[in-house]
Amino acid sequence: MSDLKPEITFNICKIAGFALMLALWFYDTELIGFFLLLAMAILSLFRWRFPNFGATVLIDALLIIALSPTWSYAQYAMVLVLLEGSYRRFYPVILTGAVMFYVLGYFDLTFFLLFTLAALCGLFLGLWEREYKQKFTLRDNEVKKLYQLQHLQSDLITTLPQVERRTAVAERTRIARDIHDNAGHEVVAAYISLQTARGLMDGADKEALELYDEALKRLDNGVNKIRETAHNLQTVTAIGVESLRETCEHFPVCSVLFRSFGDTTFIPVYIWHMLESCLNESLTNAARHAKPETLTVEMDTTKHLVRLCIENDGVVDSESATGFGNGLRNLSYRATAIGGTFSVDAGDKFRVVCVIPLNNEKNETA
Amino acid sequence: VTLSFAWNCLFKSKNSSFSSYSAIVTFGVLLSGALIPLEFFPTALQYVGAIFPAYWGMRAINSLAELGTFNIDYWVGIAAMVLFSIAFLLYGGKRRMI
Asked: How many CB atoms lie within 10 A of CB B51?
C-alpha cells in the first residue's frame, strides 16, 4: 500500500462510483441514464487525459441537473461530480450540489450527506496530491543539485591535474628565466672579464698561465652548459597570455580578435587556468550555439584584478539565452571560489565576462 | 478497433493482451445477444451486456432487421457505439504499450 498514489486512489474512487451508478442503472434501465453515464465517463476520461480542463465538470453537473427528472437515479451521479470538482480544485461546482436540491424540490438529508462526503473526499485527495507533487518537485530539485555538484566535482577532478601540470611548467619557465637572466649573465660577465684579464697576463709564470687557460676553458664549458640547460628548461607549449592568444588563433569557426592590456607576468597559474577554461568554454559555446562572424576577446590586467571579456555577434539561441549550461555554471562556481565573478549577458551580442581579483605578493608589497 | 486500442494499453506485453482480449470479446458478444437471443437470458443478465459496444451494435442491427428502416433505435445503437469509441480513444491515447 506504500505505492498508493493520490491520483490512483482518486481513479479507484471514480471507477467504484461508476460501477455503483451502473448497478443503479440495472434497477432502472432508462436509456437516457446509460447515455448520461457514458457521457460522464467520456468527460472523466477527457479530464484524465487533459488535466487542465478541470472546469468541464460543470458540463457533467449540467447534464445531471437536466436529466434528473428523466432518470430517477441521476442525482446520485452528482456525488462523482462533487468528488472530481473538489479534487481538481474547481470549487464552483459545489454550488451545483445546491442547485440539485432546488431541482429535487426538497432538502434531502441523505443527498446532503452524500454530497458533503464526496466534496470532502475530493478535497482531501486533492490536498494529498498537491503535497505529493510538492515532495516530488523538492526531490527533483535536490537531485538536480546533486547532479550539478557531481558534474562540478568531476570537472574539478579533471582540472586538478591540469593545474598541477601547468604549475610545474610555470615553475620550470621561471627557473629557466632566472638561470638565464641572473646566474647566466653573471657567469658570462665573469668569463668576459677573465678573458680580458688574460691579455694583461702575458708576462706571468708559464705554469700559472696554463692553469688560468684551463680554468677559462672549463668556465666556457660551464657557460655553454648553463645556456643549454636554460634552453632545455624552456617549455615548448605556450603558457600565460600566449596560450590564450594561441587558442584564439587556432579557433576554426571564425576569426577571433584577441587583445591584451596590462602586465600579465604576475598572474598566478591557477588564474591562468581559470581564464583558459573560460575562453575555451566560451569559444565552444559560440561554435555550438551561435553562428558568429567575429569574436572579440579582451583581457585587461591591472594591479588588482584581471578581466576577460569574450563577445560574439552570432545568433543567440534560446538555450544560451535562458541561462547557464553545466559548463558555464561550473565556471561560475570556480570563479566565485577564487573570489571572482562570472557573468553572461545575452543581449544584442552574447558576452561572457570573468573578473578575478589579484592578491599576489607583488601587489601587497607595492 | 478502438476497443482493442484501449485494451492493449492495459497490458505491458502483447501476449497477455491478446490472450485476454479474445476472452473479453467472446464474453461481450455472448452478452450482446449475437449468439443467443437476449430473451433467453435471465432478467438480471439482459442488460449487463450494455457495458460492451457489441450489445449496442446488435441492438442497431436488430432494430434495422425488424423495422427495415433507419429508426430511432438504430441511431441510438450507433450513437452508443460512437460514444464508446470516443471513450476508448481517450483512454488508449494516453497510455502506450511498452
From this structure: 16
